[in-house]
Amino acid sequence: MTQIIASIIMGIGLSACCGIRAILPLLGISVASRLGYIHLNPNFLFLSSNAALIVFSLAAILEILAYKVPLVDNFMDAISVPTAIIAGGIAEASFIKGIDPLLALVIGLIVGGSISGLVKVASGTLRAGVTVATAGVGNIFLSIKEDIISVVSIILSIFLPYLALLLLLLIGIVIFIIIKIIKKRKSK
Questions:
Q1: CA distance 162 to 168
Q2: What is the pLDDT of residues 84-98, one digit of tens each?
Q3: Over residues 97-115, mean pLDDT
Q4: Rounded to the nearest 10 degrees, how much is the dihedral formed by the CA atoms of 169, 172, 177, 182?
């Protein structure tokens, strides 16, 4: 039972990471599965295939680089919400075992997709606030911080899922407070 709960929490943590960088957590799942650190739902083993590893690697590089380019980063936030929701759903569903694969995907999309969508909207709101406050200059620094948070959270989600969940909750609270402060400043 403990292993099932840890798997679900691992999926939740990785889904939240999909809200920061949609593809990077899928790359993390692919690599960790190939190295034997995690065990996926048998119906999601394609995530650790050679093709998936190549596609996720290239897409993650492009995603990371795109967030470093002014204006492109805001465009990425606008178009990446559906990608983050789908990626979060797949991330969560890949850890749900012992049930029908379609049901696992539906549960994954409801739980993981909701979490990643929520994180993506918060992240986009924060980026918009930083864009306004710094005329876009601060976005590259925000992007680098997001990359670091994403990589650390992916690693923690895989190896220490309970700690990752706590960290993600704390980051969520901080983002919420920052958004409140930015909105308060804009209204003045």
A1: 10
A2: 999 999 999 999 888
A3: 90
A4: 170
Question: For the chain, what is the HEC assignment?
Answer: CHHHHHHHHHHHHHHHHHCCCCCHHHHHHHHHHHCCCCCCCHHHHHHHCHHHHHHHHHHHHHHHHHCCCCCHHHHHHHHHHHHHHHHHHHHHHCCCCCCCHHHHHHHHHHHHHHHHHHHHHHHHHHHHHHHHHHCCCCHHHHHHHHHHHHHHHHHHHHHCHHHHHHHHHHHHHHHHHHHHHHHHHHHC
Q: State pLDDT tens for residues 7-49.
A: 888 889 999 999 999 999 999 999 999 999 999 999 999 999 9
Residue 23 phi, psi (nearest 5): -95, -35
